[in-house]
User: Which sequence fits this backbone?
């Protein structure tokens, strides 16, 4: 009798919930940022309009796209760990170690581009994975929380990178504080045919795309990804089903670290041309924001990464109009939190709507039943537990 | 450390009276005092041995131990803040952010009203983020790790933004630092031992006497007791106070049960939510106080002056197995290794020697007398680490550049050794929904 009505309710609401979460998050973050701007005595509306006008220029869009690539890679790296129920806060150290290794490899390997570039990426992946292996092994063998070891390892990575850079890999003497410059045979070529006069799109976009596809296939469409998710949800159930949780932890951290190893390379191979002090240090937290904003969905994270890169880029213009450029940072920070709050709000609203609809349906069914004089009347109060 | 093993075994009166912690198990026994004394003496002996083996006068110099104390206090405080919130079941990764908030408001209050106001300001700044965390984690039930990480990022961004608005306008302030805080809270020295109240400074005389053992004793003693900031004393007093509250008061019992078995607390008529609110707020206040203490040391808010101490506090908390005494031990270990790392390379070598001996001894002890069945598993890593460190001490010259990583490596090494003994509160991170309203 009621089957007729259950079909059309689902789809539009699901779409609304999927879109609503990030939308509410971004709006919330804009609101909070506006609050801060107003409190500081600035006009929020003019700031946002200046940012928007600057951000949608073709050059800015190209640069946002390039900036979004490392964020997306960091987001994917984080998502691999999150799907295993781990919190890889060591992406930071992993990408810096891997970026140094990648810069050295790209500058010194004596091969043509077609061999050197994949080798560079592989080496960076291996270094990132190796650095991520330490917390994984400590977790399964010594029972030490991976968050703590990762934090300590990030600090240790800072020292190691500094020592290696100043002691071993520094090219030339004097004021030079970077590794040797990478020649054209080692740099990532620009994507032909796309881009504007001043900026070109780096081929790392393709790498990011591949990482996203691999992430989707591995997590959603493979036995491995399934067992990973089972092990995260319920370790006991996984163990009794023959999944070795310890091994899953190590594998998830290895993959996460390998992807994290790529995070620093766009800057090395497309922007700076060597490893030096200009490597951004906040990629992990911004990438984490993209993970949360996109809810570990490959496309969602891509959109999240682009939005964040867009904001970061367009905030740069604020300095020209006597507004604090820190607005961009505040926005990024608030997005991190509001993405959690936004999803919470939409899910709650969704649950409320679902409850109301179910109730209404029950009531109507009951009324129908009474009207038609059926013998068994379903109780309408069944779903009112909340 | 066995105190925390099972806090809910004490029988609780069920007639509606407030729950009272049983004190039978907790009375300080003379055995424990003697053990503490023995370990202190052993440690001192080891230090003196290391000082002569590595030819490093720095390891027992009063300057090293003075800065060790100064570096210990903020970490111990922020770890205590974390302990407060995690014992009640709320994971607090946001300690760093709370500390940053503390440094900013401390800078503001300090420039306006002096050093004591700076400490108060620190608490206020921490509390702001504490309220945010409590609302999001306890009331809304959002993932506590996410909230903590966000608080760290938000605090850093907002502090910079607000510094641009507030401090840049002030005389002598920039976006990266507040104007100087005039004055400092009083500094104290112990009478007789280190020359407080106009008495002769015995420890300094001992240190300058250059007699073996006596000079080293004087150095350590003098460093720990001479010219200590009252803020540091206050901060250190928090630790025993907190231990008392945690283990011996009715609130402590509720506090622990909110983190171990919230359902039991609810069944006995306590409010998990109220307990967690109090715990998170007090914890954030302590973290902010640690920020205020840092501000006092540098005489003003400086951007990035926390330098990851909140994270180290978190590591210390886990390291200390969620007990006040363990946290204090961990924080002082970190403070000492930090102070040693600042010093000369041979001081670092001396520290390596001390650690090597301790790890090797722990390893041997576990191999011989550990829990049967896991002797190898427990003992071997520790022994291997000890032997490796001994080899480093004997053969590898340590470059000065690695010293900045000293505290992190030391903490990591100790975690590896202590690892498997950790037991976090059972309900850590578990959300307790508010009971639905009666209709």
Assistant:
């Amino acid at each position: 009798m009621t089957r007729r009505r259950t079909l059309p309710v689902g789809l539009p609401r699901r779409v609304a919930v999927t879109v609503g979460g990030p939308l509410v998050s971004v709006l919330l973050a804009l609101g909070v940022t506006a609050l801060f701007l107003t409190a500081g005595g600035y006009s929020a509306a003019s700031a946002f309009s200046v940012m928007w006008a600057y951000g949608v220029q073709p050059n800015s869009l190209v640069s946002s796209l390039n900036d979004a690539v490392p964020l997306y890679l960091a987001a994917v790296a984080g998502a691999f760990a999150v799907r295993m129920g781990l919190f890889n806060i060591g992406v930071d150290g992993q990408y810096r170690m891997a970026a140094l290794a990648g810069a050295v490899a790209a500058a010194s390997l004596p091969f043509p581009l077609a061999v050197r570039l994949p080798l560079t990426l592989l080496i960076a992946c291996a270094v990132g994975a190796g650095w991520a292996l330490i917390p994984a092994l400590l977790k399964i063998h010594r029972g030490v929380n991976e968050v703590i070891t990762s934090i300590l390892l990030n600090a240790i990575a800072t020292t190691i990178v500094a020592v290696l850079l100043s002691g071993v890999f520094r090219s030339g003497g004097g004021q030079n504080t970077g590794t040797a410059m990478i020649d054209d045979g080692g740099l990532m070529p620009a994507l032909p045919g796309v881009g504007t006069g001043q900026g070109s799109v780096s081929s790392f976009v393709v790498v990011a795309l591949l990482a996203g596809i691999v992430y989707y296939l591995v997590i959603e469409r493979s036995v491995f990804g399934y067992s990973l998710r089972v092990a995260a949800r319920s370790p006991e159930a996984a163990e009794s089903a023959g999944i070795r949780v310890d091994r899953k932890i190590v594998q998830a951290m290895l993959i996460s670290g390998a992807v994290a190893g790529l995070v620093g390379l766009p800057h090395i191979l497309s922007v700076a041309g060597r490893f030096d002090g200009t490597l951004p240090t906040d990629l992990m937290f911004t990438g984490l924001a993209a993970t949360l904003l996109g809810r570990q969905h490959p496309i969602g994270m891509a959109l999240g990464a682009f939005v964040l890169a867009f904001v970061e880029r367009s905030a740069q213009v604020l300095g020209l109009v006597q507004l604090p450029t820190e607005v961009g940072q505040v926005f990024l920070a608030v997005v991190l939190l509001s993405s959690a709050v936004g999803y919470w709000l939409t899910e709650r609203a969704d649950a409320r709507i679902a409850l109301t609809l179910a109730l209404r349906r029950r009531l109507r069914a009951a009324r129908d039943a009474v009207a038609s004089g059926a013998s068994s009347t379903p109780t309408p109060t069944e779903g009112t537990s909340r | 450390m066995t105190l925390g093993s099972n806090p809910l075994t004490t029988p609780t009166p069920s007639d509606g009276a407030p729950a009272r912690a049983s004190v039978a198990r907790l009375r300080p026994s003379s055995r424990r005092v003697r053990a503490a004394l023995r370990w202190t003496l052993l440690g001192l002996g080891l230090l003196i041995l290391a000082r002569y083996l590595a030819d490093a006068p720095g390891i027992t110099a009063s300057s090293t131990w003075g800065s060790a104390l100064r570096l210990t206090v903020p970490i111990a405080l922020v770890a205590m803040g974390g302990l407060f919130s995690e014992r009640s079941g709320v994971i607090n990764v946001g300690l760093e952010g709370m500390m940053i908030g503390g440094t900013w408001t401390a800078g503001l209050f300090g420039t306006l009203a002096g050093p004591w106001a700076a400490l108060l300001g620190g608490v206020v700044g921490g509390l702001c983020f504490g309220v945010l965390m409590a609302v999001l984690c306890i009331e809304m039930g959002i993932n506590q790790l996410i909230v903590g990480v966000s608080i760290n990022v938000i605090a850093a961004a907002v502090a910079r933004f607000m510094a641009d608005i507030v401090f840049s306008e002030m005389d002598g302030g920039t976006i990266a630092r507040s104007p100087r805080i005039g004055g400092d809270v009083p500094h104290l020295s112990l009478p007789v031992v280190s020359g407080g109240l106009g008495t002769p400074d015995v420890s300094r005389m001992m240190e300058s006497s250059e007699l073996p053992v006596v000079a080293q004793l004087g150095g350590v003693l003098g460093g720990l007791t001479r010219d200590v900031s009252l803020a540091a004393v206050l901060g250190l007093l928090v630790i025993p106070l907190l231990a008392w509250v945690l283990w011996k008061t009715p609130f402590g019992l509720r506090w622990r049960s909110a983190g171990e078995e919230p359902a039991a607390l609810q069944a006995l008529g306590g409010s998990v939510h109220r307990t967690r609110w109090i715990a998170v707020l007090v914890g954030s206040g302590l973290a902010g106080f640690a920020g205020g203490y840092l501000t006092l040391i540098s005489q003003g808010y400086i951007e990035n002056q926390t330098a990851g101490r909140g994270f180290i506090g978190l590591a210390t908390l886990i390291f200390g197995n969620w007990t006040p005494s363990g946290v204090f031990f961990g924080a002082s270990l970190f403070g000492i290794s930090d102070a040693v790392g600042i010093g000369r390379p041979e001081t670092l070598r001396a520290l390596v020697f001390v650690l090597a001996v301790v790890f090797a001894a722990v390893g041997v002890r576990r191999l011989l007398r550990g829990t049967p069945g896991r002797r190898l598993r427990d003992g071997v890593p520790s022994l291997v680490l000890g032997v490796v460190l001994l080899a480093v001490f004997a053969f590898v010259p340590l470059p000065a550049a690695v010293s900045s990583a000293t505290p992190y490596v030391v903490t990591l090494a100790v975690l590896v050794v202590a690892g498997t003994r950790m037991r976090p509160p059972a309900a850590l991170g578990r959300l307790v929904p508010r009971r639905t309203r009666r209709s």
Observations:
- Strands of chain B lie at 187-188, 228-229.
